[in-house]
Design a protein that fits this description.
196 residues, two-stranded antiparallel ribbon, two-stranded antiparallel sheet, 7 helices, 3 domains
């Protein structure tokens, strides 16, 4: 009995039943999603999937074409990514712990800080200025003559916005390239100044 096709009469009865159910506003069990009935009661089958409509992107506002059955809300993966990032910011993020990220970490992960670090590496030709090592070593940018924490204290930086607006924090002339080992030997590194 399985895999038998319906006769023409039974297909007409099924179609009439679906039309009646649609007109009455009842939901129709449709496991494959193929039976699409429009308001005028016409059965379209797979042709329904090929009907194009215009949709406005929820992020950038561009209008794009999509198929009627498609649930797209964004014109591109880039817009989808932007929307996802907005949805997962701050309190909506599963890693949110009440806004306790340290100011120093926020600054060090900012684009401005990364650009400052890259500019120092390029200026110093990707070479440690203490030992002269170059190549596959791990480089770090060091604030000098005053350390990063001393600059934060001196300019009374308490917020991320104040840090971004502080020119001395991102002054290329006040930075030097060290390898990880040489950076660890500096006076200000990780509290070395307090060790006697």
């Amino acid at each position: 009995m399985f895999c038998q096709t319906h006769t023409k009469e039974s297909r007409i009865k099924i179609s009439e039943g679906l039309k009646l159910a649609y007109q009455e506003g009842r939901k129709v069990y449709n496991p494959k999603g193929l039976n699409k009935i429009l308001e005028n009661g016409l059965y379209l089958g797979n042709a329904f999937k090929n009907a194009k409509i215009e949709i406005k992107c929820e992020v950038c506002g561009n209008v794009f074409n999509s198929f009627k059955g498609n649930k797209r809300k964004f014109c591109s993966r880039e817009c989808f990514g932007k929307a996802q990032r907005e949805l997962q910011k701050g309190e909506n993020c599963n890693f949110w712990k009440g806004g306790i990220t340290k100011l120093s970490k926020q600054i060090r992960e900012s684009l401005e800080y990364k650009n400052w670090r890259l500019a120092i590496y390029k200026r110093d030709n990707w070479t440690c200025q203490n030992c002269g090592n170059r190549g596959s070593i791990e480089l770090e940018a060091h604030h000098t003559p005053k350390s990063f924490s001393e600059l934060l204290e001196e300019y009374k930086i308490k917020t991320f916005e104040q840090a971004i607006n502080c020119k001395e924090l991102f002054n290329i002339n006040k930075g030097v390239t060290f390898c990880k080992d040489c950076h660890g030997l500096t006076f200000e590194f990780c509290g070395n100044q307090y060790i006697k």
